[in-house]
Amino acid sequence: MEDHLLVILPHPDDESFGVAGTMLNYKEKGGKVTYVCMTMGDMGRNMGNPPIANRESLPLIRKKELENAAKILKIDDLILLGLRDKTIEFEDEEKLSERIRNLIEDCQPTLVITFYPGYSIHPDHDACGAVVMKALASIPKENRPTVYALAISRDSETDLGKPQIINDVRPYLQQKLDALKAHKTQMQEVVRQTEIALQESNDEAVDRLKYERFWLYPFGDE
Ligand SMILES: [Zn+2]
Question: How far is ligand 1, taken at its centre, from the CA of residue 62, in Å?
Fold first, then answer.
């Protein structure tokens, strides 16, 4: 079976932060990458500086930004679920997890990456992780792909221990930065701070940029 990485995250830009290097490395090794983005980030707080969007135009602009980032990250398939930003926790969990399960069955991924529910700071992140894990848990373990969970809250290591997977993504640093830059409306300040941190070179933020960390998610039936 061809290696196929399926990334499922809630917002345009989540992919560039947490998994950009891992996706590029997957491509380099000849695998296929699909990114399912649950929302259009239509409730994003930033409109660009100077503003290049307003509340009405933001979803369309963010869609374009995401398409640009997807090109830089060499994503084969970009799937937009079109859920409303900041409301994933209020979706019908049963229906959404069934939709995700159907997607997983269509894609036949060998690896799935999503947020670690409870350790991902933003309610959309936690809700996305929870519903994807629910979908994966319903797949018999013999057929279940490998699952990497992205935990980003401060207490992740204290509670979960060290991440089992640490990907050195230094070869992809420039593409990762370019992908972040593609998210113009949201990421200007982050990119500016990141570039400063890179120049100073021993910052915690730089370490997070160079190494992508994932935890194996326990389904309880392994
Ligand atoms: Zn996000």
Answer: 13
